[in-house]
Design goal:
Elements: H1 3-6, H2 13-20, H3 38-49, H4 53-75, H5 78-94, H6 106-150, H7 156-162, H8 167-178, H9 183-190, H10 194-214
Length: 215
């Protein structure tokens, strides 16, 4: 059972945060002289598992440059690599009892955690970028339809086509184009997600465009 299960992970958390506030030193390579044997590191991890802040300080000093080096090589962003380093060291603090001599060196163990965290961060950033790209595409499509409709915004055809929309679609379009509100303002006023407002307006404008083409 680790400290997270017993509530001990919060004990002295300020000391741990102070240790982790230090920027990783070195260049991400292993020290020339190993300060201890495998048995030494195993014992140190056991002390960390028991909440020994001084033992963790020793682990942080030795492992954070290695973790940072791996993170920055994979992520290629120093700020995010620093964040991942803190995440890895916090995981080591909470799960130090999981280190076993049979698993290899302390460096290999920390490196495995660092690679996993760095890859997770890369995937998360890729997913975020993909979402932003999709939102940009939708906004751009809406803007293209807007331009075509605005040229006829005062025409009788537009008023007739507005009558073909659902009540909610018509309300949203009127708020935006006749009321002069932004999408965000409409979302706040109608107490609905911004994505819903954009989707509703996009659907309404596409229907209006089709109606105007037929008319």
């Amino acid at each position: 059972m680790n400290r997270a299960d017993t509530g001990q992970s919060n004990t002295g958390s300020g000391d741990i945060l102070n240790t982790m506030d230090r920027a990783p030193s070195g260049t991400g390579t292993r020290a020339e002289v190993n300060p201890g044997s495998t048995e030494y590191w195993s014992g140190l991890c056991q002390r960390v598992a028991q909440g020994d802040h001084q033992a963790f300080d020793s682990l942080y000093t030795e492992l954070s440059p290695v973790v940072y080096g791996i993170s920055v090589r994979l992520i290629r962003n120093t700020a995010q690599a620093s964040e991942v380093t803190q995440e890895v060291m916090l995981e080591i603090w909470n799960n130090a009892q999981q280190y076993s001599q049979s698993a290899g060196s302390i460096y290999a163990w920390a490196s495995t955690i660092a690679r996993r965290r760095a890859i997770d961060r890369i995937r998360s950033e890729e997913a975020r970028t993909a979402r932003e790209d999709r939102n940009f595409t939708v906004d751009r499509e809406v803007a293209q339809i807007d331009d075509e409709l605005m040229a006829q915004v005062d025409s009788e055809q537009v008023r007739d086509c507005l009558a073909t929309l659902t009540v909610k679609e018509k309300q949203t379009v009127i708020d935006t184009y006749y009321g002069g509100s932004t999408y965000a303002q409409v979302a706040e006023r109608r107490q609905m997600p911004l994505a819903t407002v954009k989707s509703r307006i996009r659907s309404a404008l596409q229907r209006l465009k089709t109606c105007l083409e037929v008319a």
